[in-house]
Amino acid sequence: MSYVHPVVGVPPPAFNVVAPSTAGTKDLQGMPGTAGSLALRVLQFGFAAIALSVMASISDFQTVTAFCYLVVGTGLQSLWSLSMAALDGYALLLKRSIRRSSLVTLFAVGDWLCATLTLAAGCSTAGITVLLARDLDQCGPNDCSKLQASVALTFLAWFLSSCSFFFSFWVMATS
Amino acid sequence: MSYVHPVVGVPPPAFNVVAPSTAGTKDLQGMPGTAGSLALRVLQFGFAAIALSVMASISDFQTVTAFCYLVVGTGLQSLWSLSMAALDGYALLLKRSIRRSSLVTLFAVGDWLCATLTLAAGCSTAGITVLLARDLDQCGPNDCSKLQASVALTFLAWFLSSCSFFFSFWVMATS
């Protein structure tokens, strides 16, 4: 089959033109709008929400600024992950694309901010937990096991949030 | 001017084909091998090295794990930034390209690890500094101003390291 058609003012294309690199990575699991991304979001939400609940169950957590910050940080992470999970579910159910340039930029910025806040919250609480458990050896009255569990869950939420950020940023850079 | 030529088995190209976005961002300041990147590296090294020195000048910093971790974290950040500054200087002086795929992947991974370690070090020390200065009001004997200066400098080093990571990751994704 062959066509003969006029092309006005445009030279014939070179033979070594390479397709944009996005074509091969279009459906990589974990990118926005895939089942992998939905799984990441649900796990992030789960870990962040449990970390928040464990911290909130310590009776005098309000007396330490870093513990309050962990509650705020994991709370924001939970809300963001839940919203993104809803968006991924919408994209999967209705088979719509959510990889428009402006949307993907918003995902990348939001993921970076949330991952940074969550890591900061986990580390500031971890610093105090290690101070109490190891440096001062005052773990009896301070619910150290709850603190350690809350920090570990926050780090898990941060790690998964970082994965989502990498996927969003990759799609942003290659779209 | 018009051409008439046969095209075998290939439909005519769409009119809204956009050139790949990498072409325009080839020499964006901050990308590996540019003067902007060299400036970022020198500043990262400076902030991390001063943060380390300020922390090391506190007489009993070894008694708190988080403070030792800040010294290790900013030490690693300084070494990484100095090595990258040397590489940028080499690329600029000899006009060599250091944007090979494997090298840029190494830069992106190294920058991410260093930025994460530095943020973690800054936040764990910040948690304890706020505990001492605000929650327990025990700032007299604890060199709080030095702690605050060290945390602020560590955050500056982290922010600049994050900028380098964004540039490296962008080049990695688009190359």
Automatic annotation (TrEMBL), chains A, B:
Keywords in UniProt for this one? Cell membrane, Membrane, Transmembrane, Transmembrane helix
The record, for InterPro entries, names: CASP_dom (IPR006702), CASPL-5 (IPR045009)
Per the record, what is one GO cellular component?
A: plasma membrane
Residue span(s) of domain Casparian strip membrane protein: 32-160
- Oligomeric state and partners? Homodimer and heterodimers.
PANTHER family in the record, alphabetically?
CASP-LIKE PROTEIN 5A1, CASP-LIKE PROTEIN 5B3
| Name the record gives this protein | CASP-like protein
Protein source organism = Selaginella moellendorffii (Spikemoss)
Q: What is the lineage of its organism?
A: Eukaryota, Viridiplantae, Streptophyta, Embryophyta, Tracheophyta
